[in-house]
User: What shape does this take?
Amino acid sequence: MFKRLVLPLVVIVGLAALYFWAAWKWSYSSGERAGWVQKLSKKGWVCKTWEGELALVSLPGSTAEKFYFTIHDDHVAQQITRHMGKRVALHYEEKVGLPTSCFGETRHFITGVTLSEEIPLGPGVVVQTPQAATAAASAAASAAAAGPPAAPVAPVAPAAPAASR
Assistant: This one.
């Protein structure tokens, strides 16, 4: 009786645990997405995960595409919270085959975040973020405070006397 009921049940539970472990550790793909984090919240009845959305804008004036993501690490969620409203690049891993929403609502799990300093609009066209623009302005101000560069002064010819009538 033990061999017929309990042993197959233990084997099935062991195989299911092995499947979940393999699906969690293996990544289908990994990469980066850049944009502005619009929303970040901690959700879940039992398994709490950070869920968010990133607005991706390819060209100015175009409709923003949204990238939905999940975060398990609270430290990464705090970093993203600090950079909300700024352009960031999110590093992600895509996990396929996780059966329940207890792991997260999306397939894209964020592993890191990088603050983007410049916004490329096209080839050779870059808009600086306020931090980069402030740094450029302070460099220009310090150069102006040092004084104008010495330029050679050209001699001025005497003015011709005005003719009288």
